[in-house]
Amino acid sequence: MYVFPKRILNLSIAVLASALCAKASQAATREQPNVILILVDDLGYGDLGSYGQKKIKTPHLDKLGSQGTRFTSAYAGATVCAPSRCALMTGMHTGHGRVRGNRRETTPGVFLAAEDVTIAEVMKEAGYRTAFVGKWGLGEVGERAAGLPRRQGFDYSFGYLNQSHAHNSYPSHMWRNESKIHFPNTVPDENELGMGVSDNKEVFSQDVFMEEVLGYLDEQQGSEDPFFLYFAPTLPHANNESRPFGLEIPDYGEYIDKEWTDAHKAYAAMVGRIDSDVGKIMQRLESLGIDQNTLVIFTSDNGPHQERGADPEFFQSSGPFKGIKRDLYEGGIRVPMIVHWPAQVPAGRVDDTPWYFPDVLPTLATIAGVEAPRGIDGVDVSPLLLGARQPELDERLLYWEFHEQSKPQAARRGDWKAVRCCGSGRVELYFLPNDPGETNDLAPLYRPLQAQFSREMLEARTVSPYWPYPLDDTSFVRQK
Question: Which contiguous run of DSSP H or E holds residue 89?
Answer without folding.
Answer: helix 81-90
